[in-house]
Amino acid sequence: MTVIENSQHFAVLGPGGVGGLLAGLLAHAGHRVTVVAQEQTASRLASAGLRVRSRLFGDFTTPIRAVPVLEERPDVLVVAPKATALDAALDRVPATLVHDALVVPLLNGIEHVTSLRARWSAAHVVAASIRVESTRVAPGEISQTSPFAAMELARSGVPAARVEGLAALLADLGLDVGIGDDEGVTLWSKFHFLLPTALVCTHAGQPIGEVRGARRSDLAAVAREVAAVAERHGIRLDTDGVLGMMDAVPAATKPSMLRDREAGRPMELDALGGALLRAARQVGVETPVTARIVAELERVGPA
Asked: In this protein, which residues make up the domain named Ketopantoate reductase C-terminal (predicted)?
C-alpha cells in the first residue's frame, strides 16, 4: 500500500493546462480533489465539471469540487498557476491549512521552491518538474496533445516516503513518473530544455520544428548558457543531450510562452529568462544571447 491513499485530500491551485489535467485525472480515478480557482472559474467547475480531451488519457468529463479560497487542509497541494498570476493565486490558500502538507509546485523557472518554502515554512515543498503539452482552451476545458506526460519529484529535503507514495499514485494514473535525489538537478534539468525552447520559439513566433533549423544556433547558445550558470551553482548538465531532446519533440509543438504571446496574455518572461539572468549575476557568468532575447521580448510584448 502506498503512503498516499485514496482517502487523502488533494488540492489543486490553478486549473490551467497542467493543474486542470492533474485535477481531472485524480478526480476521474476517484480521489478526493478540491480545485482552487478564481470565483468565475470555480463556479463553472462546480456546476459543469472538468472536461479533459487527451491524446494519452482519453476524453472524459468528471464532477469536481471547486472553491475560490481553500477551506479544508489538503494532504497534497499542487501549485500550478502561471508565474504571472502566482502571487494572487497563493492568497487563495491560507497558510494555516498547509501545515505538514506535501506541496508540489509545477511551475516554470528555478526560483519558486525557495520562495514557497519561505511563505509556507510548516509545509513540505517538493521540487518537481513536468513535461507535457496541455492547454486550458476554456474555463474547465483541458486539451492535452503531447505524446508524453512525464513528471519528476525530488525526495531531497522532504519526507521521502511521502514523495515515493505520491509518485506511485501518479504513475497509477498513467503519468511517467521519476524520483530524483537532488532537487537542484530536477529543477535545472527541466530549465535546460525549457528556457531555450521558450525564448527562441517565442522570439521567432514559430513552433519548435521551425526554430531548431533556422534558429538552431540560438537554441544551442541559450542551452550552453544555462549549463554554464548551472555548473557554477553545482549542477552538471548535458547540452548535447538536451539538444537531442529538442530534436525529438514533435515539430508542431509550441511552448506555453509562445501560446501566451499569440493570445495576448502576459508572458512568463521574468520567471524564465529573468531567473537565468539573476542566477548568472550571482556567480559572475556572462549570458549574452539570453540577455539579448529577453531584452527584445520585453520590448515587443504580445504578438
From this structure: 187-297
